[in-house]
Amino acid sequence: MSQSRRLSRRRVMEGAGIVAAGTALAACGATPTPVVIEKTVEVEKVVTQVVQQEVTKIVEGTPQVVKETVVVQVTAAGPTPIPVGSASGEFTFWYPNQQYGEWLRDEFNKLGTSVTAKWELGEYDSNTKTMAALAAGNPPPVSYLGRWQTCDLAVRNAIIALDDYIATAQHFKWDNIWTRLQKDSVSWGKKWIIPYTTDTRALIYNKDIMSDAGLDPEAPPKTFDELHDMAVKITKLDSAGRIDRIGFTPTFGNPPGYLIFLSLLWCMNSDMVNESMTKVTITDKGVEAMQYLKNLMHDQGGYDNAVAFTKSLSLAEGLDAFSAGKVGLAMNGQWVLKNYDKYAPNLNYGMIPGPVFPEFNIHCNYDGGGGWFFFKKGGHFPEAWTFVDAIMDKDFQTRFADLVATLPSRSDAGEAWAKLDKRRPVFAETANTVKWIPIFAGIIESLSSLATMYDNILIGGADMKSEIEAAQTKIQALLDKHNSFPVPS
Prior knowledge:
Helix content: 25-40%
CATH superfamily of the largest domain: Periplasmic binding protein-like II
CATH topology of the largest domain: D-Maltodextrin-Binding Protein, domain 2
Number of helices: 19
Largest sheet: 5 strands, mixed
Distance between the termini: 11 Å
Radius of gyration: 30 Å
Strand content: 15-25%
CATH architecture of the largest domain: 3-Layer(aba) Sandwich
Shape: globular
């Protein structure tokens, strides 16, 4: 951010090329009585402050005190940027996983900077610890959190806008980051977080189950109609009418449960809110999306039956319903592949982009991921920034993402990461087209309204149209509240 520009005595004299001359004159004897001249120097900036200062100049051999009224700009948009060149000593960062947090700590400390990182367990999809720390006035300098928390923390005046620091980063440029993540990191025209990881989804299909159901294991479903038909053929019921194996269910995989509703909206070229983030739009295609889900689940034995099925599963260590052979088709992210390799090495499966509605040709997908939040009351900003700037290095981030099995936030690191495993390109190739929940203050409460709507329709049998309209009304109130907040500084 801009700072007040003060023209010091030495700076003005240097600008006139007279420092040496003034020094020489002082050595030659007494100085004549100065003549006072007043003048105004106009600086081509927005006029917000007037500064008057005295400057000694040499004019035709006679010292004169020139009182200059200098017009300068003072930006009121936020606090003066914190200098980061003085970083040294220890600081603490929060990360929600011990193995990966300690890896970040150790690998950064090996870089040999003047900063020493210490790790503390944080959180990701929750904010209980974060809010408690804010209430106590002792948040961490920096914490890795889910991107959805941006606006909730910004309106609380809790986090630092990072535009100035990003502009001078040493190890990355903003344009290195996937454009999708850039968009999610900006609210009110400011950059609030440094995205670090993301994830996308693919349709994973069990080839052995498809063969057992009489389907071609090399011809997975590419449209939602094909998904419906194949899911019904894969599903098996026991003698009591309970599901023993299911084709496809939102009760397993990711996006989980009600969030598949949003994926279907996106596949119908619709969304939860409009582009300007002023109007909730789930009624536009909401009935069609819920009707598809209701028909799909009804034809596999009912949604409540599917819920009971997934809850009753007893699985061996490291297995999930898909790798255990209980689900034939699933949307899921790249992180599951590590467990499949370790705990189900003989699993015969394939992966393709999610299905589409042919009239829109938008693949089913879902985004996610987290980033680094810097807290105003956390202190140690120079040290925290040095840490995040360093670990945003392409090679460093690629190594971390390979360890964690998640997609890097940098596009060039993402391309390098994808080359490390032949199964990864299907995830990396959609990083800029995938969608995610809109980010505004109150988004978690909004998702709660969606979850209630979803359950009321699929389990409670409530009227679809009225439930969707009720959810839209509740979410609109939250969105209006978000838009009523003053722009955070």
